[in-house]
Amino acid sequence: MKIAIITDQHFGARKNSKLFHDYFLKFYNDVFFPTLEKEGITTVVDMGDTFDSRKGIDFSSLSWAKNNYYDRLCEMGITVHTIVGNHTAYYKNTNEVNAVDLLLREYKNVIVYSKPTEVKLGNLDTLFIPWINQENEKLSLNIIKKTSCRCAMGHLELQGFRVNRQIVMEHGLESKLFEKFSHVFSGHYHTRSSDGRISYLGNPYEIYWNDVNDPRGFTIFDTETLEYTHINNPYRMFYNIYYDDTPHQMLDVSEYTNKIVKVIVRKKSDSKKFEQFIDKLYSSGIADLKIVENFQLQENEEFEAFESENTLSILNRYIQEAEIDLDKSLIQKVINEVYQEACELI
Question: Which of 38, 105, 139, 288 has its CA 20 to 30 A from that of 93?
């Protein structure tokens, strides 16, 4: 039996941005639903953070999610197993009140899991593990220890895996707790990574600048063979363009409509020609344009930022190289959270 696994969809992201929801929809219409139909998928596992804000959802975003995602899954007769993640739990210390349970009760094909639960997917016994917090930690660890399930799927915060391309998580649960399972799939971290047993599958699309050029999509998992395949999302939101006295006539702007673009200037010897280059970019109907002309800090600074880096990678590398007697991984985690919150204000 083949199933689809998707995680960290973050409906309502970027302050319920229409730009981002339109971008999400291309993935669902052109990639996700056609693949489900082609593969004959009748079961989807959502591993958490279906909605973006734990405190509430804009009515237009809820309407979008129902009209473009849940209604269609219901019409297709697809069962959706939805695991509560940290973004869908209202409180940080319990999963009892959560968005997916409250918002999706009308859908008989959607099953919500706020507590660790053993579920049979085809012939495969699978343990679903929602977000582990203060209230359920003891219960969750006890079930993980006692279960006979071969496979686990959840929304886990484990040490040693990449939160994104810039940060490796040094806090959270130890991966050795899951040695008994042949396969563990998880959401929560948005970039793909695997140690051979535990796999973070990544979210379906780019949401922040630190996602640029990082593969996105969802996963097809065969419950009989235990083989899985990533289905990539070909659509991007963020683009880096490197300007090196590049003639504007050579620039193909067709793919930048409704995209967020950063022009990184390596060499600019003629301001008028540069303005023509930028004007051509604007003519494509880009959603937002950032221009970066100087990566150099003051001459007496030892730290140097490179043009290939984004804001978050620069901050994290600065912290890592700083001579401070503090927990650098904890500081990086806080910076990452503040950065994402700041992006929400844009």
Answer: 105
Q: What is the pLDDT of residues 296-341, one digit of tens each?
A: 544 445 545 555 556 676 777 777 666 566 676 777 777 776 766 6
Give this prediction's pTM: 0.86
Strands of the 198-200 sheet, one edge to the other = 117-121, 124-129, 151-155, 183-187, 198-200, 193-194
- Please check whether residues 318 and 208 belong to one and the same domain: no
What pLDDT sits at residue 342?
64
Q: Which of 12, 9, 70 is nearest to 206 (CA)?
A: 9
Same domain, 190 and 274: no
The range of the structural domain enclosing residue 217 comes to 2-232
Q: Which of 193, 134, 121 is nearest to 164 (CA)?
A: 193
Looking at residue 3, its pLDDT comes to 98
What letter does residue 177 receive in the DSSP assignment?
Answer: G
Beta-strand relationship, 238-244 and 228-232:
unpaired
Beta bridge partners of 218: 231
Residues 44 and 166 placed together within one structural domain of the fold: yes
pLDDT of residue 298: 45
Crossing angle for the helix pair 311-321 and 328-344, nearest 10 degrees?
160
For residues 219 and 248, state if they share a domain. no
Q: Are 194 and 333 members of one domain?
A: no
The stretches in the chain having pLDDT less than 50 are 297-300, 303
Q: How far is CA 60 from CA 16, 45, 64, 65, 131, in A?
A: 8, 25, 6, 9, 27
| Distance of alpha carbon 277 from alpha carbon 269, whole angstroms | 13
8: left (phi over 0), alpha (psi -120 to 50) or beta: left
- The Cα 25–Cα 64 span in angstroms is 9
Q: DSSP label at 257?
A: T
218 and 243 housed in the same domain: no
Cβ atoms < 10 Å from Cβ of 272: 7
Total number of domains in the chain: 2
Question: How confident is the model at residue 343, as a pLDDT?
Answer: 59
Domain edge (last residue) among 232, 252, 280: 232
Question: Which of 119, 124, 113, 64 has its CA nearest to residue 89?
Answer: 113
